[in-house]
Amino acid sequence: MDSAVFTPEAAYTLDQLEAKFPPRDLPAGACVTRFGPSPTGFMHIGGLYTSLVSRRLAHQSGGKFFLRIEDTDKKREVEGTVDLILASLATYGLSPDEGEIADGQEVGAYGPYRQSERKPIYQSCVRWLLDQGHAYPCFATADELQALRDEQTKRKVPPGYYGAWAIWRDKSADDVAAALAQGLPFVIRLRATGGRDERVTLPDTIRGDLEFPANQTDVVLLKADGMPTYHLAHVVDDHFMRTTDVIRGNEWLASYPMHAQMFALFGWAPPRFAHISPIEKQDGGSRRKLSKRHDPEASVGWYMEAGYPLGAVTEYLLNLIDGRFEDWRAANPDLPNTEFQIELERMSRSGALFDLVKLDSVSREVVGTMSARAIYDAALVWASGHDPEFAVRFAADADYSQRIIDIERHGERPRKDIVRWDQLPADIGYFFDDRYAELLGEAKETFAALQPAPAEGLLAAVAEGYDPALERDQWLEWLRDLGLTFGYAPNAKTFKQAPDQYRGHFGDLASVLRVALAARRNTPDLHEMMQVLGKERVVTRLTAAIGW
RNA sequence: GGCCCGUUCGUCCAGUGGUUAGGACGCGGCCCUUUCACGGCUGAAACACGGGUUCGAAUCCCGUACGGGUCACCA
User: Fold this and answer.
1) What Rg, from alpha-carbon coordinates, does chain A have?
2) Distance in angstroms, CA of A469 to C1' of B3?
3) In DSSP terms, which residues pair with A544 in a beta bridge?
4) Which of A384, A434, A428 is nearest to A402 (CA)?
5) Which residues 332-361 in chain A have a CB closer than 7 A to strand B?
6) pLDDT, tens digit (0-9, with 9 covering 90-100), for A224-274
7) How far is A442 from A444, CA to CA, in rounded Å?
8) How far is the CA of A93 from the C1' of B33 (A)?
9) ipTM
């Protein structure tokens, strides 16, 4: 039987492919890694995690990181996913060196980088396997396969298409020709070579040597539509794309024996493997993988919407990769995190629980090291996409916005209360007059509820006497003195010693000003806030509040 | 069910035969303080269990339990 019938799109011999995709010219020790997502409408945080590991490993060794779109299942494909993947990677600084880099645009000499466009390559390899007797066509129907499984379950033997259960494994050429003549759909299966007690060992970079029973299953290589299964595509692609390190989720551990067998049959040296544990989530008493359905934080889109700065997600993930990152960061507060060398060998073998609280803490630190300008730029990009109304305000006066951001962020102990950009509209909205106007209603309520009630004439006096030229200390002294004339003790201690002699203490006075100026009781340093607002706004707002 | 993987404070990690089992986040307390933060100090908090090996085990071996993965023409 001519194998061409089963692989109509085959176009090369193995030798031709070897010549077409020669070994890469890279320095010794350089790692070539890849990320191979299927475009099913979603970018999982785990994909970002794997990409981070892969890309860092490649780059710190002088190698390459490429993106391969694994779109061999046309049923599950969701349009637009590739753009989403590209945007996600780009947002967190993980753009690939090779592969699709923009809509339909590819770079790199080992393409095409979409598996759906590599059919001739897969079929060429399968044809060789067929010719060698290492693969064969199978015309079993879904019903027949189901019946097989039912029988296996009944007989309590391992389910699967193997050995004597592999009904098409040893069919005669006549049977095959007959099925073909009827136009029956077929798949191509591997003729498994694993012996009954044979074992294979996987030298996993993270986990050390792992041992499994050798593969005995005649796994499907080519589906009825002529597309490869993951197994075939992985082996063929990672060989011809010259991947040195396959970094993938540990759900692939169990299929390693199949892959190993195929590499051996082709006579190819397998790459190194590193199976990483998935990021999990606490769910009641147990833990499970972060799921697309139940956990919004499973999607990279969630982090983009929340406006976590690039570095925050990266550094949090780096922490999961190697706990020593934290120590490194503490010792090197100013170095870019790309300087941190990751080591696969040090990765945890068990799955890490995703901890949003920790992420926030990391983010706080990351934002803490950013300049007001950098925060402004990043937050504006976020706002443009997620809060247009705020974006307009924020962009209207870039200098004003940056001074707002910079409040209490300079000096020895910078304020670290920004975690994600989406908190900004609520946190600093009151600085903008149009937003402040919208907050007036609640401001009045808060003002009316103030205890002790604001002293008559206080607002007018502050508005009257406010001198923005005063340094913080002088200003404080001035305000304390002024407060005293309205019955506010200069500090809490004095007040506590003689509560009946005062209306309240300095903190109460500050609250009055805060509510009038910011429509809330909690604000950053009052002095600095007033400086940024500027005398005009301060006077206007205080004066308007006199009637509250 | 078979096969495989995993198990140190609530969480993330250090620890590779001899440590008062360390750090970070979170939590409690104290301090600083014009509110909220920041910061400083401090406290509570863990080697899944049972057997070995050893002078000595979180570290090595075996078993148990509990989690997880996988057994598709999905990746």
Assistant:
1) 33
2) 77
3) none
4) A428
5) 346, 348-353, 355, 357-358, 361
6) 999 999 999 999 999 999 999 999 999 999 999 999 999 999 999 999 999
7) 5
8) 40
9) 0.92
